[in-house]
Amino acid sequence: MVWIGIAIVFATFYFIIKNYETRLVLILSGVIMAALGGNIVSSVNAFVKEFTNSGLVPTICIVMGFSYVMDYTGCSKHLVAFLTNLLKKVPLIIIPGSVLVTFFLNIAIPSAAGVAAAVGTLLIPTLLAVGVRPAMAASAVFLGTWGSVMSPGLMFNPQVAEMAGVDVMTVIATFSKQVLLAALAAALILMVIAHIKKEGVGSQRLGDEIVESASIKINYLFALIPVLPIVLLVLGSKQVQLIPEFTVPQAMLLGTALGFVVTRKHFGDMTKQFFRGVGDGFCDVVGIIAAAAMFIQGMQVIGLTDALLDMMKGSQQIAKFTAAFGPFIIAAISGTGNAAALAFNGAVTPHAATFGYGIIEMGSMVQIGGGLGRTMSPVAPSAIILAKIAGINPMEITKRNMIPTIVATFIVLFTLM
């Protein structure tokens, strides 16, 4: 039965890589494994349970609602324009600066595709205008799209927090230094690659009019709104405690309300956008979590989870590298590490102490590995968006981001676990 389970898991990720509907593939795989194991009801119950998960559902849905309002009001665009203008003033560090600007924006706007579209339309023309080659310009922006691993609204951080019995900001504080170090290292490595390949600043000249076509008049108050919830969460966290503690939904709702008041757009339309985001968050994010829960339960019923745990108990190093590079490889191939990270966190991370690690450390490493793997994938939606803006093949981005993402994964792996 274990070998059958392994075959089903490989088939699952094959179909996900082939771009079949992820939720359907996970559900069918979970049902098949549970049926073979003789307990299909438990798999169905696991699916239903996630839709009423009080720790995950409100956080994910409200973050998505906030994100939709920020996009509709233009606040996200003003923030991006503000940071882009700062980079234009220091062309010598524009490549690593572009990586890090995108990284920090991806914390406030946790959708990789969303931040790629918002940042790419402004930052890529800026990079081209100072002589950066198109492939390097797209690579610099794409390399920053794993900043969402530090977002309190990313599905994995509340998941790990719930397993560990702590708040979300405690989870993020555990790995923030390691992730920031890895992000800086990746940005500097890409700068070196740009120098070696002669693709950096001054390697070509396309004219400043390209930047002017993408510029907007910045409203600095609008630019502040998208980052306000993050600021509130940090200042109110147990590690800082400068203000009363906020939950993620509370901070995001306050940010949404301020977006309404400050931008003064049509309140009815903004309300529709908020609830559209809430609905899409439930459909696209909570839905895949529920489907993954069904898949995880199927692995448990058929005996695959216990077999995997027994194998990993034999060596801490196996557990360590599997947690990082299992999701990394699948994400690099498929363009998304969500399914693999959710499955690993659901099946293995609760047993982290068995391997000598903490739940927070292992669970965080899993999602960071998946995020970094996606950040070198040529089939990730964000890579395709940026390649189209820059007018290049997405594989050109992968060639440049492969070394920085692998090095960043090793840095987090050896400093966190």
What is the CA–CA distance across the termini? Answer: 32 Å
Taking all residues together, what is the mean pLDDT? 85
* Element pattern in H and E: HHHHHHHHHHHHHHHHHHHHH
Helix/strand class: mainly alpha
Number of helices: 21
Oligomer: single chain
Report the uncertain regions.
Answer: 207-214
Q: Could you say which overall geometry the principal axes of the C-alpha atoms support?
A: globular
What can be said about the biggest beta sheet?
none
Report the sheet-strand fraction.
Answer: under 5%
| Gyration radius from CA atoms, angstroms | 21 Å
The overall strand count is 0
Could you say how many structural domains there are in total?
1
Percent helix, as a range, is over 70%
Family: Belongs to the DcuC/DcuD transporter (TC 2.A.61) family.
Keywords: Cell membrane, Membrane, Transmembrane, Transmembrane helix, Transport
Membrane topology: Multi-pass membrane protein
Pfam family, one: DcuC
Summarize the entry for a quick read.
With 417 residues, the chain is an all-alpha fold. The longest helix has 36 residues. The chain has one domain.
